[in-house]
Amino acid sequence: MDDTHHGTMKEDRHFVTALARGLDVLACFRPGDKALGNQEIAQRCQLPKSTVSRLTYTLTKLGYLHYIASQGQYRLGSATLALGSAMIARLDVRQLARPLMQELADFSRGMVSLGMRDRLSMIYIENCRSQNALTLSLDVGSRIPLATTAMGRALLASLPAIEREVVLTEIRTTQDEQWPDLEAGIQRSLQEVREFACCSSFGDWQTDVNAIAIAFSPGAGQAPVAINCGGPAFLLSKEFLLHEVRPKLLQLVRDLQGNLP
């Protein structure tokens, strides 16, 4: 987490900085990371290595990290799995969405995923792919950027204006050089929601990937989620996604909302 965000939080007397830093350490592990050393964790969290050493020691004692002595590195421990599993198990929307998502994945020959926001990323909490071998190599737990993906933009568009501005300020702070292009894409997505009831990313995240997405509330006071359909651009053209897939994605969301408790 960047210093600006922590600085803002420090002004809140109820904010526990040590706890926040410990959670930052856990959050810095990315899909594909087998293990990280204190130096790499310090760089990712923008913290002194001495501070990180104390945090990783404590998190290891509590089971949130596992220390690999032969490598001098850490991997996520079983306690983090228990937390994630408990949270995902309570999401009724996953069970309801899966058969509908698989049907759309088969129709589109792409991948249909359900995700939630974590800071400046979206995390997949459910994923269905067609039998087509050329779908994206992402799965449950994968992270994708908030600002450049259809799913992330849909989630941003669903937020109340004040909350969205807070997130946009954080994106601008952390990605200052890319901000003009990012802002243009996000603003375009807000217009797309008004015109098409969905958001798109045609080559904005990865040049050869196209996707559309819709955000909605899963009910029961839970945070909003977003559902996307995407894949290789040569298989899922902009026209196909907007004219053929979009109506089915809209119906999928309507069906879900009608069956959520």
Automatic annotation (TrEMBL):
Pfam families, alphabetically?
Answer: HTH_IclR, IclR_C
Gene3D superfamilies in the record: 3.30.450.40, Winged helix-like DNA-binding domain superfamily/Winged helix DNA-binding domain (1.10.10.10)
What keywords are assigned to this protein? DNA-binding, Transcription, Transcription regulation
- Ranges for domain IclR-ED come to 79-261
State which residue ranges cross the membrane: none
User: Any idea where the HTH iclR-type domain is?
Assistant: 16-78
- Domain of life per record: Bacteria
Q: Which InterPro entries match?
A: GAF-like_dom_sf (IPR029016), HTH_MetabolicPath_Reg (IPR050707), Tscrpt_reg_IclR_C (IPR014757), Tscrpt_reg_IclR_N (IPR005471), WH-like_DNA-bd_sf (IPR036388), WH_DNA-bd_sf (IPR036390)
| Protein name (database record) | IclR family transcriptional regulator
Originating organism: Undibacterium hunanense
